[in-house]
Each structure stands twice: as structure tokens, then as C-alpha cells.
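Consider today's protein:

***
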Amino acid sequence: MEFLIAFVVGGLICVVGQLLIDFTKLTPARILVLFVTLGVFLTAVGLYEPLVNFAGAGATVPLTGFGYTLAKGTMEAVEILQVVLQLPQPELEQQYFLVILQHYAQNHRIKDKKQMRVGIIPTRIVFIDYWIEQSK
């Protein structure tokens, strides 16, 4: 059933794009920008997250999903920055890494340090190694 829902939702998003190509004078490049911007906007107002939870890949694979990913990453970075800016200045560098890791672990439901290392992109491995060393 999950595959069917993803197929239908993703297909409907693509149908909207095809209708825009067929019945408007918008170029494909403008439609691409429209879809990405629409994904960012719907995420900002809180409407795209429920769709992603319902449809999974059907909502994250089309271009609107790219906009959703951009907005989600930006919102996480702002949350981290707000916490980091509240830290005392001398401890800022050391605490910055720990705040990022704690925030990442909370948002991704990671409780074990070994689990934290699995599946993380290489740029985050530096933070993970730092966290493991600091917590020994």
C-alpha cells in the first residue's frame, strides 16, 4: 500500500507539471523553479511535512521534495545557530560540535554512538569522531 500511495502522490505532482508545460507558456526552467519554490513555501507554512509523512518518496522525489529538503535543512541550521549563539564565548568552539551532534541525534532518534556513525555523510564524520572522543 505504501508503494501505491507514493506512486499516486508522485504521479499527481508530475501531472501538475505536465499540465503547466502543455497549457501555459512557462518554460521547463521556470516550472522547475516554481516547483522548488513551492516546496520551500509549503514546508515553511507546515503543509508539506504531513504530505511527506503520508506519501514518503512520492512527495520527496519530485522537485517539490527538493524544495522541502532545502527548507528543512535551513530550519535545522537556524535551530542549531540559535542554541550556539546562547553559549558563552570561551566555550563556543568546543560546545558548537556537541550542540550539532545532540541536535542531530535528537532529530534522527539516534541513541547509540555506533548507530550515529552508520549512514552519515563524510562531512559529518568529523563531528561524530569529536563527539566520541569527548564522551570517553
Observations:
- The chain has eight helices and no strands.
